[in-house]
Write a structure and sequence with these properties.
Helix content is 41%, strand content 21%. The chain is an alpha+beta fold.
Amino acid sequence: MSLFVGILLACAAGLAGTLLCPDDKAGRSRLPLLAALLAGGLSWHAPARAGEILRGPAQVIDGGTLRVGTRAVSLFGIAAPEADATCADAQDRPYPCGRDAARALAERIGGAAVACEPRGHGTGDAATALCRVGDADLGAWMVAQGLALPDRDVAPDYAAAADRAWGRRLGLWSGVFQDPAERRGRRAAASLGAAG
């Protein structure tokens, strides 16, 4: 999708360069404006590449997803409840665990800028990235608080923190919940079935 949008922006830049720039009789070149529009359009929609660090303020979408600038970023190595997820506490009372996880992540970030290093492509349009506030790994922090589960195959370093959170009955571990990765997989399968 981003490539298609980039191509459309390049075409729009060419048309804008033709229509908006003075003609060659005035001795001015259309090339600088055309190059600026083309580069800006393509860089705005270009996906993050490995090694490229996204920096800036972050908007929390849910306990495992941020928006940094114009890019959606899934936190590397974790599965957190989606924003609308409901869990049950130790007394089997429902509570909005998805909103709680998102709120805790937003409070942890506060007004600080995040730095996210892409680690591959995640779900949907979101890239997967290792995101930090200062030196603190946000994915590891979410697991340590019991607000997300580690993907033990991808991020084995998070397993010990998850075990400690489980032992202390923190966050999700204080009651009953559906595995966020399993829930996300079911939703994706249902949306594919509905589309077909």
